[in-house]
Amino acid sequence: MADLLKLGVLISGSGSNLQSIINHIENGSLKAVIKIVISNTPDAFGIERAKKHGIEVKILNHQDFKNRDAFDTEMIRVLREAEVDLVVLAGFMRLLTPAFLQSFPQKVINIHPALLPSFPGIHVQKKALDYGVKFSGCTVHFVDEGVDTGPIIIQAVVPIQDDDTEEILAARILKEEHRIYPQAIQFFSEGRIDITGRKVRIKTAKSITVQAVHNPPLNGF
Ligand code: GRF
After folding, report:
1. Sign of torsion over alpha carbons 74, 87, 123, 170
2. CA of 90 to the centre of ligand 1 (A)
3. CB within 10 Å: which end of the chain, N or C, has fewer?
4. Residues 6+ apart with CB under 8 A from 91
């Protein structure tokens, strides 16, 4: 266990991304160990997922703390006690304070269900649909003091079909989230992430071969 990347996973809800990380660790494709799962909501289903796999869970209800700083200070203490190497936000619906980010410099990542910088914030699948874009997707990025503005590690693109509903699009995006998040963490585990300013480079990454994708598909052009 000594060499495995030690993760602290923060959740607020269903935890399907947490489940994907657990599954990839258990099938051996992700070289990491989840030391602690923290939930800020006592009824998050993700708690059940973690317990089912024997992972330590800490419920820190943000409403029990006098302010954001007090809440984050306790999270920092719990994560340090667990000696985590990387803090993974998986459907964690709280903004982190500068003090928290300074406690884990370039060691806090998040997954977002849109192609950042487009559609930051919440309800982004509906925003993409309503805006009428032809592609959407998901993004794993470092967390900085902005809302979904940190340097981007990996993205996946999905087409939007004319008859898509918010639910259908969200499900198509979530399927890709469950692939790119374990991949991003594996890049960390292999020490292949290089950050220069806003630019993230994956050392020795295969270069993408797709030249372009069109939606709707071209018809002979
Ligand atoms: C995901 O779409 C994630 O991108 C967003 O919140 C949703 C949470 O999903 N931040 P889950 O809790 O991991 O199932």
Report:
1. negative
2. 6
3. C
4. 11, 12, 13, 14, 15, 16, 17, 18, 46, 111
Which residue's C-alpha comes closest to atom 3 of ligand 1? 91
Catalytic residue among 112, 141, 178, 214: 112
Measured from the CB, is residue 22 less than 6 Å from ligand 1? no
CB crowding 75-94: b at 16 or more within 10 Å, else e: bbebbeebebbbbbbbbbeb
Asked whether the whole model's pTM tops 0.85, one would answer yes
Distances (CA, A) of 139 to 6, 118, 161, 175, 214: 22, 10, 20, 13, 20
Q: Assess whether 53 carries a catalytic annotation.
A: no
User: What distance in angstroms lies between residue 116's CA and the mean position of ligand 1's atoms?
Assistant: 15
Distance (Å, whole) CA 204 – CA 44: 38
Residuewise pLDDT in 10s, the chain (221 residues): 557 999 999 999 999 999 999 999 999 999 999 999 999 999 999 999 999 999 999 999 999 999 999 999 999 999 999 999 999 999 999 999 999 999 999 999 999 999 999 999 999 999 999 999 999 999 999 999 999 999 999 999 999 999 999 999 999 999 999 999 999 999 999 999 999 999 999 998 878 888 899 999 999 99
Residues 6+ apart with CB under 8 A from 2: none
Listed residue (128, 183, 179) closest to 153, CA to CA: 183
